[in-house]
Amino acid sequence: VDLVESGGGLVQAGESLRLSCTASGFTLSYYDIVWFRQAPGKEREELSCISYRDGSIYYADSVKGRFFISRDNAKNSVDLAMYNLKPGDTAVYSCATPQQCTNRGILGGIRDHWGQGTQVTVSS
Length: 124
Description:
Elements: E1 3-6, E2 9-12, E3 17-23, E4 33-38, E5 45-50, E6 57-59, E7 67-72, E8 77-82, E9 91-102, E10 105-114, E11 118-123
Parallel strand pairs: 2-11
Antiparallel strand pairs: 1-3, 3-8, 4-5, 4-9, 5-6, 7-8, 9-10, 9-11
């Protein structure tokens, strides 16, 4: 496993969590990164991505204004800060390296690296 997600857990509605996507064996600052989530019985949802080339950032409408993506090059990670969490945010959250991140989302699918995911559960 070369991408590891951490920071998930059980929180109440309105609370916050900060997820990290940490790389091992390669330098994450040279890759675009995308965060996905998948809830039981639902399709995978692309939430946010960040480009290493020009700093472009994308957010899905469902999380815009509540979730914020950022790089921590000292930790070789990309974080997803999540605020005002809702029960509908309950899902497994995963990160991956896309071919390209634009301000409209990812292009060209996933290259090379996937994480195994971290569970986020939001109770009402």
